[in-house]
Write a structure and sequence with these properties.
179 residues, alpha+beta, Beta-Lactamase, five-stranded antiparallel sheet, two-stranded antiparallel ribbon
């Protein structure tokens, strides 16, 4: 449909027939069952653009980029995160580290760090150990920040974790040489 301003406007229609006591079809109310859904389509378009941007940022990074809800369940994980976990996306979305991590103590420390970010509502940086069959024992520098909704309420955390295992190994070797 072309709107008054000359632009195409998407419409949605949903109708239901109403009958009187004699089973005669009643006329439609003024305006009918048609609604202009242009606002919904623009919102959907903006959401898709934001999701494409988020996906693009996640795919270009060698660092783990992720988001978790208030219960530390994964709600976003880029390919680098999935490679560290050694699991496909459908096995981590909606689950916490406790659901798959081989070392429960490490998983509980990661979740304790998440809770600290939620409690403080500030950006925090942690060194987190992670052991997996695919990568072995690794150490990550994890920068985590509160994830806020449109009204500013904290609804989870976002994080970026960089593998610093080689750096930590080099530091340890240097300490041994200087002792």
């Amino acid at each position: 449909m072309i709107s008054r301003d000359g632009w195409y406007s998407p419409l949605a229609a949903k109708a239901r027939a109403f009958f009187d006591a004699a089973a005669r079809l009643l006329p439609l109310p003024p305006g009918g069952p048609v609604a202009d859904i242009k606002h919904n389509k623009l919102t959907e378009h903006e959401l898709n653009k934001a999701l494409d941007l988020l996906r693009g940022i996640g795919e270009c990074s060698a660092d783990a980029i992720y988001a978790k809800d208030h219960e530390s369940r994964i709600i976003f994980a880029n390919p680098a995160t999935l490679a560290i976990f050694g699991k496909p996306l459908h096995e981590v979305i909606g689950r916490s580290n406790l659901d798959w991590h081989a070392d429960r103590d490490q998983a509980e420390r990661v979740i304790a760090n998440d809770r600290e970010v939620l409690r403080s509502e500030t950006v925090q940086v942690f060194e987190e150990a992670y052991h997996s069959a695919q990568a072995g024992a690794r150490i990550f520098r994890s920068s985590k920040a509160p994830l806020r909704d449109g009204k500013g309420a904290v609804v989870g955390i976002v994080g970026v974790s960089s593998d610093i295992t080689e750096l930590k190994n080099t530091e340890a070797q240097l300490r041994l040489l200087t002792e």
